[in-house]
Amino acid sequence: MACRTRLDHTRFRELSLTYTAASFFAGIGGLDLGFERAGFAVTFQCEINPFCRDILEQHWPGVPRARDISKVTNAEIPASDIWTAGFPCQDLSLARMGPRDGLRGGKSGLFHEFMRLVRGALPRAVILENVHGLLTSHRGRDFAIVLKALDECGYGVAWRVFDSKYFGVPQQRRRCFIVGVHRDARSAGKVLFEPERSDGHLTSRGHNGKKSPSLFQTVVGDPVKGPLTKALAHCIYAESARHTGTDWSRNYVWYPDGRVRRFTSNEVERAQGFPVDWTLPQAGSCFDSDRIESKRYHAVGNSVTPQVAEWVAHRLGCVLRDQCVEQLRGTDLMRTTPCQLGEHAVAVCA
User: What is the DSSP string of 22-88?
Assistant: First the structure.
């Protein structure tokens, strides 16, 4: 995505800056992969799960990595423009049976540890991701806690629920993204909402018009030999390879001869938007084959769709570049060459 600055009357149409991102509750790197694809450099990762840490090491071998966020200090975190956090959803999820503990829970409550670190560093922007159940947990009080914590640190905040199926991913997966931009009340909204969209005029449909078929009812595959499956997968949850409950009974593959099976690990990865074998450990892994399959299913179910993260990251990068140009307005730097402008902009925006 091209990032056009506001200085259209000058020869400077773009700023070639590389921004940095630190990742907390990194999982298997869904947010990290999306931000990297958008041109960000990953500088730091924090993840406690041993299997996920192995996967992160495979894909980002040179990145500093911490385990337990409750023991991390600000001194360990490299200076980074953006901090991302897909903090645990277990105590917030609507799929959880019974009462939800919300931000008082032992897992989702780790949000407070993340904010402890944010207060000590105040990065330029913060990206949070979680299930949309965050919005209603404890009748909205937990979400109010999140907004208040960011506001007290000086962040202008915007939030929006995205569905992965609108980003080229064959899965219905609704997740809430929260963007906070430090000391900027307008930029967060510019990241998540598109003023450039069309007016959205809809063609009227007659009273007897035919309803479009649901993608859940649309079958794709070879009708003679198979395999066959739904065109759109239901939300993929964290589960084991031996799970036989309602989740996999909704997401399955079948054959014309009557055979039925669950998704393979690679099929789950594709439905989540990851490259094939993204979660397959390298040879010599300490996990045996049976445990690996369960851990792959579980890790993918807990992950962030990279394509959604990439969309957010592209727009955030554009907003940050616009901020840099605004800081340069009226300075002598506006008479430099584009190359020189880029060099100076790095210093100004640091």
Answer: EEES-TTTHHHHHHHHTTPEEEEEE---HHHHHHHHHH-TTS-EES-GGG--GGGSPP-SEEEE---
In a domain, 46, yes or no: yes
The number of C-alpha atoms within 13 Å of 109 and in the hemisphere containing its C-beta is 6
Q: What is the CATH number of the domain that holds 106?
A: 3.40.50.150
Does one domain contain both 264 and 323? no
Q: pLDDT tens digits, the chain, 350 residues: what are they?
A: 444 333 333 333 344 468 999 999 999 999 999 999 999 999 999 999 999 999 999 999 999 999 999 999 999 999 999 999 999 887 787 665 567 887 888 889 899 999 999 999 999 999 999 999 999 988 899 999 999 999 999 999 999 999 999 999 999 999 999 999 999 989 999 999 987 666 665 555 555 556 656 777 899 999 999 999 999 999 998 765 555 545 556 889 999 999 999 899 999 999 999 999 999 998 766 666 668 888 999 999 999 999 999 999 999 999 999 888 877 775 554 544 443 444 333 333 33
- Write phi, then psi, for 42 (nearest 5 degrees): -80, 125
pTM of the full structure: 0.84
Reduced DSSP (H G I as helix, E B as strand, rest coil) percent helix, strand, coil of the chain, to 5: 40, 15, 45
Judge whether 89 counts as a catalytic residue: yes
Q: Which of 136, 139, 48, 32 is nearest to 88 (CA)?
A: 48
233 and 317 in a single domain? The answer is no
Contact 205, 230 (CB under 8 A): no
Extract the tokens encoding 71.
Answer: 């023991």
Query: Do 226 and 255 contact (CB within 8 A), yes or no?
Result: yes
Residue 140 and residue 55 in one domain: yes
- Residue in 3, 46, 52, 89 annotated catalytic: 89
Number of domains in the chain: 2
